[in-house]
Amino acid sequence: MSAKNMFLKPGFVRAPLQNGVGRYVCQLQRIVFKFCKSSGGSRGMRDFIEQDLVDFAKVNPGVVVYLKPRRHRSPVVVAEYLNGDRVWMSCHNKTHEEITKWIEVCRTQQGNNADTRLRKYQYTDHPSIQGPWTPFTFKDPELNTTVLPNTKFGANNRLPISATEQLRLMFEKQKLYEGDEIKTAE
After folding, report:
1. pTM exceeding the 0.90 threshold for the entire prediction
2. CB contact set of 92 (below 8 Å; sequence gap of 6+)
3. Which domains does the chain have, with CATH numbers?
4. 22: which DSSP letter?
């Protein structure tokens, strides 16, 4: 374990409430916009509040939005999530577009996991020196430069004929045989 992880709180990676399996639950619970009504550094924040805040609140009815005007202070956005995390972000001298993008980032993430030391349920004294397995570990390198679809790398030429295809071929042969028999009888 490296020394930088010694002072981080430990935690496990988990999908909150299996988010996305059934219905999507927005993890953003509350967002607070702190700004100055007269400061030049808060201009982008004031533009966002005037133009886009009402639409943001209509689209996201599960998110509580607070406006907190403060005199002679730098603009700040504080996002609070369902898991208890708080993300604090300074918006000093940011444009309206930049603030819109950062609000979208806050809306779509599930909190600040950067300050958590990730733990695993499994542990080994002798980790693999080969690295993790990926689906591309044992693929042919020629596949990188090949124009696809290619019969050499296609899965269709390696598989045996399916049962449905066998029945279709048998039916076509039977139709041809019955057709020849009818023609000879006439």
Report:
1. no
2. 41, 42, 74, 75
3. 11-118 (3.40.30.10), 137-186 (no CATH)
4. S
Which tokens sit at 181? 């028999």
Tell me which residue has tokens 């208890």. Answer: 84
Query: Could you list the pLDDT tens digit for every one of the 186 residues in the chain?
Result: 556 656 666 665 555 555 556 667 888 999 999 999 999 999 999 999 999 999 999 999 999 999 999 999 999 999 999 888 899 999 999 999 999 999 999 998 877 666 666 666 666 777 666 666 777 677 777 877 888 777 776 655 556 788 898 999 999 988 887 766 655 555
Residue pair 78/87 in contact (Cβ under 8 Å)? The answer is: yes
Partners of 186 in the beta sheet?
none
Secondary structure of residue 20 in the 3-state scheme: coil
Token pair for 101: 């993008």
List the one residue out of 97, 94, 90, 87 whose CA is nearest residue 76. 90
